[in-house]
Amino acid sequence: MTEPLIIGAMVRTLGAYPSGWRHPGAHRDPATDAGILRRIAREGEDAGLDYLFFGDWLATGPDLEFRDPYLLARIDPVSAVLFLAGVTSRIGLIATVNTTYADPYAAARSLASLDVLTGGRAGVNLVTGAEPRAAGNHGRDAHADNESRYDRAEEFVEALRRLWDSWSEDAWIADAERGVLIDPEGLRPAAVEGAHLRVAGPLNVARPPQGRIPIVHAGTSPRSRALAATEADLALIAAPTLVEAIATRRLLRDIAAEAGRSPDELRVIAPVLPVVGDTDAAAKRIVQTLLALVPLAEGHQAARAAFPPNRTIGALADALDVSREDPLREATFDARVTTAEAERLGERGAALIERLDRIAGLGVRTGDPLTWRHLVAAHAVPAAFVVGDAGTIADHFELWRDEGAADGFNVLSAFQPAQFEAFTRIAAPELRRRGLLRSVAESQGSTLRDRLRISSYVDA
Q: What does the pLDDT average to over 378-400?
């Protein structure tokens, strides 16, 4: 029997699509994130999802309003999972730690504490950072180069694991009659002496219930893929197509095997941005609304600080190699795209139009009217939407599993809470019916390692 997929939620309270926060009823105030986080956590746990995943970004700026609004102001990920530990009882909790700037002892301590407090539900996503502004926020003149960052990351992994191994499984004796609390031989130093990190240890937190807390890593560079394939339990990939995902998963498994690791110990997780409705048509109308809400260069918008230069009809025409003399450059955003104009957009324009028909039911000859606003928004703010009812969403998950593209998915929601709840209440039951998502009963009493189907760690 085929095992269920690993399915978690990548939590972005302001939504994963840049215009999602503008959707009617969407959460849009990070100062009130506590309420929406509780709602998401309970919803995900009740649906039987395997974990909640919190990414991170160590800087902010006005440009993020248009590119990634959810990064403007967000709760620290370790604080978020510790907060949710008290309102959940089964779901895994994965927080991001940036190895370039974090202190390994402090990270090991907070994560071990989370694991103890939750009975083994902690996980950590390790990133090396890619935001130059973060350097200034941490008192540095420049962002570290790629090689140095990954050298430090490898030492960071070693430090975490040695610190989590500070206490042997039988070191805590607690014999009141003899007055013996611990076996001192079972308390071990970390003794990490690397080029980038020095950590003495031992850790002053009880041994994590999972022994070694599951590690997650994502990236596309050779060093990043090597770290994911050799050290991570979950490798997050960014593959927009089935073919790319199959190739990436195969590559990561090959790297693991070449390093002497069983490829089956590595779980490859792909992102998915489902737009879910009761019907395919209803889901496509949601995409239409999201496209219509993308801010474009009209009125006061173009004069705003850091407004993207690609949100004009002229920028779209440039990208599609339309002649400078073509009058379509003078079209208005809300004008319908005519058949003659569509024919002058070339092969890439045709592909964009075909995609909008598929994900939003918009067309030149058939479907709802396709406007220049839709074209500019879809080109400027692309997203790999999977759009439809429960069956359509489940078909996508099933195809990627059966073709060997992924062992699971990180589910993103275009806006909160309605789209996440549409996934958990409409799509998740169908995923369970097909055996793609484990039942809620199967998750009772399990650790995150159990959910991820990672072999139990045995203390050396």
A: 97
